[in-house]
Amino acid sequence: MKKILCFILSVMLLLSSVTVAFASGETPEAESELTAIERVETDSPVIVVRGMQFTDGLQFDRGTENAKPVNVQFDAGQLIKYLGKTLLAVLTSFSIEAGISVVCEYVTELFSAYPCDENGDSLYENISAAWYPEAVSNYPELYNKTSTDEVSIVASLWDRYGGDMVYYFVYDWRLDPQDNADLLASTVDKALSETGCEKADIICCSMGGSVAMAYMAEYGYDKLGTVISNTSVMFGADVITDLFQGKVCFDADAVDRYVNAMVPSIGGLISFMNKTGALDILCKLLNNFAQKHEKQIFEESLVPTFATLPGFWSMMKGESYPAAREFIFSGKEDKYAGLLSRLDGFYNNVSSRRQEITDGALANGVNLIVIASYNSPLVPAYESAKYHGDGMVETAPMSGGALTSVLGGVLTEEQLAVGDSRYVSPDKCINASTCIYPEYTWFLKSAGHVVGLYGSDAMYFLMALLESEAQPTISTFPQYPQFMASNANEDILSFE
Question: What is the pLDDT at residue 127?
Answer without folding.
Answer: 94
